[in-house]
Design a protein that fits this description.
Layout: E1 2-5, E2 9-10, E3 23-30, E4 36-46, E5 59-69, E6 73-80, E7 97-106, E8 116-123, E9 132-133, E10 145-146
Antiparallel strand pairs: 1-7, 1-10, 2-7, 3-6, 3-8, 4-5, 4-7, 8-9
Length: about 170
């Protein structure tokens, strides 16, 4: 069993076509001749309206979801995002989910010989398909990194002096 994840990535407010970004789609495919079981999760964090150096915690946007993929099949998870309403300064509201990280585990490998995963996002009018995709929100299977020692919390800031090994 492997764990693959994207790094944290920023969700822009609008697509290149000026439509609000309101959906992220995780697609899992099984090109093998056997049933594969995968667990997917999306974590979210909010960005602030001012530059912040202190750590910000992640919370589940999509809780751990088990997916059974029959042989030679594809499955998609459409995850709605709350739309950030622009203020007078066109900056995001403090509590809108603007930073995401996608994590998958189970019958999946970085080599791609089991389940394959991709992530895309953009604007949707029906809540499960893309009308306009945002190119900066496309992650291929090869863009995921393998997690060797998964420690989901607490996150720490690498420049925090309390985390300096020399201060022990």
């Amino acid at each position: 069993m492997a764990i693959l994840r994207t790094g944290p990535f920023l969700i822009p407010n609008f697509t290149l076509g000026a439509r609000p970004i309101n959906i992220v789609i995780v697609t899992l495919s099984n090109l093998t001749n056997r049933i594969l079981n995968v667990r997917a999760m999306i974590k979210q964090s909010s960005t602030a309206t001012v530059p912040v150096i202190s750590p910000v915690s992640f919370s589940p946007l999509l809780p751990e979801t088990d997916i059974s993929l029959p042989p030679k099949s594809v499955s998609s998870l459409a995850v709605p995002l709350s739309v950030t309403k622009p203020t007078e300064s066109d900056s995001p509201q403090p509590n809108s989910p603007r930073v995401l990280s996608v994590i998958v585990s189970g019958d999946i490998r970085k080599s791609g010989d089991l389940a394959l995963v991709t992530v895309t996002g953009g604007s949707s009018s029906d809540g499960y398909s893309l009308d306009i995709s945002e190119p900066t929100l496309f992650f291929r299977h090869s863009d995921f990194v393998e997690v060797h020692h998964y420690h989901p919390f607490p996150f720490y800031h690498p420049l925090d002096p309390n985390n300096d090994e020399n201060n022990k």
